[in-house]
Amino acid sequence: MVTSFLLVSGASLLAVVVLMAVTAWIAHRIGKVSVVDTSWGLGFVLIALVAALLGGPIAGGDAARRWVLLGLVGSWGLRLAWHMHRRNRGQAEDKRYAAMLGDAPFSVAIRKVFATQAIALWFVSLPIQVSAVAGDGVAWVLVAGISLWLVGALFETIGDAQLAAYKRDPERGPVMDRGLWAWTRHPNYFGDACVWWGIFVVSASAWPGVLTIASPVVMTYFLVFATGARLLEKQMAGRPGWEDYAARTSMFVPRPPRRVQPSHRTVSRLPWRRRPAAR
């Protein structure tokens, strides 16, 4: 099994390196590093496809679980890639990358962005790679993983749709606090975490998938502390209405909103006092 895993993992890493090399070439050509956000989702789809195709012929891994994982990762990754493409299309460089890179030469972007994301893609996808070469597993654990993935996918999809509707609403308030956004300040990031914990549980339904637990832990750390929620909240700090929203709404794990007294900074929602959307 070790040799089979090394072959699947090596092929997955090679596929991701090629994808990021192409993405870096496109980014350099158009002068916008944020195109890497589209390739992030596509990278996981590519790895799941490699694992599904190679796992059986090389190691005789469980076929049903390989194709289940390809379906889960494929639907999630393609939706995310399309969402990021639509969000970034026609926009200037993302502020995160502009702040990170400044006026540095493109070689710095290759090291800090494209190479880093290639390694992260490979590491987070270890449950997919290991599962591809594993044998039969426990059915109810697999079903539990699919269920957790479904919860995450619904949070991401519904949260993104609600945010898009909010941005189109001319009567919107200064901060998005409707629907899932009233229960968690980051339903899309929470959903993303559930998706990857679900994929891990699917992999853990067969030995030695449980050994890849570091992958969803690292992904959750990125989503909460490194490049996700915390970074966004630094950008949101000081926006009209944000302080009250943060006081009553859970930062990550959903829960009913608290009842708090509005602060003196609360902005009126009367039409003539509307301000640009904070998100």
Q: How do you describe this structure in short?
A:
The protein is mostly helical and 279 residues long. It is 67% helix and 0% strand. It folds into two domains: 1-136, no CATH class; 137-279, no CATH class.
Break the fold down into its secondary structure elements and pairings:
Layout: H1 2-30, H2 36-59, H3 63-88, H4 95-101, H5 106-124, H6 126-132, H7 139-168, H8 187-204, H9 214-226, H10 229-236, H11 242-248
What does it look like?
With 279 residues, this protein is mostly helical. It folds into two domains: 1-136, no CATH class; 137-279, no CATH class. It is built from eleven helices and no strands. Helix 6 packs parallel to helix 8 (187-204) and helix 7 runs antiparallel to helix 8 (187-204). The longest helix has 30 residues, at 139-168. The chain is globular, with a radius of gyration of 20 Å. Keywords: Membrane, Transmembrane, Transmembrane helix. The chain crosses the membrane at residues 6-27, 39-58, 113-132, 138-158, 213-232. InterPro entries: UstE-like (IPR010721).
Output the helix-strand order: HHHHHHHHHHH
**What value does the average pLDDT take?**
90
> Could you describe the largest sheet, including whether it forms a barrel?
none
| Assembly state of the chains shown | single chain
The number of helical segments is 11
Distance between the termini: 47 Å
Query: How many domains make up the 3D coordinates?
Result: 2
Protein name: Steroid 5-alpha reductase family enzyme
Transmembrane segments: 6-27, 39-58, 113-132, 138-158, 213-232
InterPro entries: UstE-like (IPR010721)
Keywords: Membrane, Transmembrane, Transmembrane helix
